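Input (Lipoprotein):
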Amino acid sequence: MKKRWAVFALLLAVIVFSSGCTLRVGEDKNESRFTIQVEPEGSKAIADWKAVSLRVAEYYILPSNRSIFMTKERTLILLKASNDVVNMSAFPLGNNTYLIPTYSTDTGFKKGWNHVSLLIRFKNGTPGSLDLLWRGKPSESVMQEVHFSVEEVENGYRLTPVGLSVSEFSAFGKTYRILILPPDTPSNLSLPDTEDYLVLWTNKTLTVPLTNTRKSGDTIVVVTQPIAAIYVASNEGLAFFDKLQFPYEEFEKG
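Output:
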């Protein structure tokens, strides 16, 4: 295991601060503080929750020691379902814990709030739904880094991963890890593989086109190019969180 990890410049980054956030059903006028609202009819399905701000730092190392650096913050929310819930339309992490799909949020449900709707099935067979709203920035933060070596080739940019960090946070008495995996990682990846997951990047080279636009008749179409996938892992489950897209705009700036 140690030999496989040595293939990369391993960057350990675990930054954790206390949260102190509370579940609220009413209105909160302090928009800077992270706040979650659950519509009353869905509140019985939630026993607890945890939110962290995931900050992903991307480094692109080009020839002549030139580099491009960018960061993006994402809100990561785990829900602990009540004992009455058997399943919900979120990503399971085991022990009745779910990662909600914040990448597909809708901001039109309530002005100033992010929103996602989840379907629920209770143990008695009754279906239900849950409207979750949130705003503000979580006070707990986790930092993740990924480094790519970039070479411009005839048909695009060739990316080779040269460094990945290993980050983790705690929730509901358990430890969860942030994993950055190749974009073609199978969704049924077995958990033992995640313990030595850096080996999945061994000899892995990605090539993306020189441009993310193509012409379709008189229309210019913008195409995203995923170069990595972000997962959250526990000892009991693996849940997809978001994708890293190749930053064409940053490369076009020169």
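The first strand starts at residue 11 and ends at 12.
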